[in-house]
Design brief:
Helix content: 25-40%
Order of helices and strands: HEHEHEEHEHEEHEEEH
Distance between the termini: 32 Å
Strand order of the largest sheet: 1-2-10-9-8-5-6
Number of strands: 10
Largest sheet: 7 strands, mixed
Amino acid sequence: AERYERNPRALPELKEYQGIIVPGGFGARGVEGKIKTIEFCRKNKIPYFGLCYGLQLAVVEFARNVCGMQRAHTTEVDPKTKYPVIHTLPEQMVNIHEKRMGGSMRLGAYTCQLKTNTKSFKAYGAKLITERHRHRYEVNNDFRDILEKKGLVFAGVNPERNLVEIIELKNHPFFVGTQFHPEFKSRPLSPHPLFREFIKAAIQRQLPSKNRV
């Protein structure tokens, strides 16, 4: 990611990959390189799976480059951004301000209601699921309308607090981001449904065009 920050002209090498994952994480290191990678995957139809921070940065990328919100960001990296499309909840802000970092995360299992006619709903085969979380920052609901109008699909939402849990893009082989951590529930012989579908999309990209389903 840091290399792509320094040299964006190297991004076309990503076409050699069948799929790209941006996993969970914290901080500003390599963030702009990750955002450039996400943009390249979006535009070039490379299967993309964003986990936690990978969802948040996908929202930042979409806000900047599709919605025209120049310099949109997460307040984790830019607390003064004009477009804080990713931010912390009020109760989290109190904990962070008082340096109680251990109490500033959304942890554990939360429910997620899936929107029908989405890749996520097809993968799970259910309308209501439960997934495990470990994060401080959330999609800012103040920007959901414009993001949705421009084509970002909010495929899963926590029904108790109306928090975004899954994003998708239409007309893309696989572009999915989750606020939760599906890797926590995935096993070698029992893969998580979203990992399964991501790998299917990667296999399809690898196959010659005449053999693709």
